[in-house]
Amino acid sequence: MNDNRDISNKLKKCPFCGHVAFFKTTKEGEGRKCLNKIRCTNCPANMKTVIEPELAIEVWNKREDNHEWQQLEHEQQQCELEDGKDEQRNQKV
Ligand SMILES: [Zn+2]
Questions:
Q1: Ligand 1 centre and the CA of 9: distance in Å?
Q2: How does pLDDT run across 20-46, given as a tens digit for each residue?
Q3: What's the pTM value of the predicted model, to 2 decimals?
Q4: pLDDT score, position 84
Q5: 73 CA distance to ligand 1 centroid (A)?
């Protein structure tokens, strides 16, 4: 948990609404593989990816580079799962 908080501190504000974004790692899917998420606390902006946390932060922080971001989103679509409850529990930013 503390690790995720440290990573969240490195994140820039949401590219869309300017609110704080947070990072969390979760396990999803049939294989329960680790999935890194970056999500805005205010709007639906979010990124789910299996790439390394540091790299995920880089992509989020370079959010003006929308092309790269959208590519990631596309690649990760198959990993998306609803786990809203889990996220809310960690949403104390
Ligand atoms: Zn936002």
A1: 16
A2: 999 988 887 677 777 888 999 999 998
A3: 0.59
A4: 46
A5: 16
Please check whether residue 88 lies inside any domain of the structure: no
Taking the centre of ligand 1 as the mean of its atom positions, its distance from the CA of residue 31, in whole angstroms, is 30
Q: Are 21 and 10 in contact (CB under 8 A)?
A: no
Mean pLDDT of 83-92: 50
Is position 66 within any domain? yes
Q: How far is the CA of 39 from the centre of ligand 1 (A)?
A: 8
- In eight-state DSSP terms, residue 79 is G
**Domain span holding position 64:** 2-80
User: Could you tell me which of 36, 41, 42 has the C-alpha nearest to residue 72?
Assistant: 36
Give one word for 32, left, alpha or beta, with left for phi > 0 and alpha for psi -120 to 50.
left
Q: Would residue 60 count as lying in a domain?
A: yes
Ligand 1 centroid, distance to 7 Cα (angstroms): 17
User: Ligand 1 centroid to 16 CA: how many Å?
Assistant: 5
Total domain count for the chain?
1
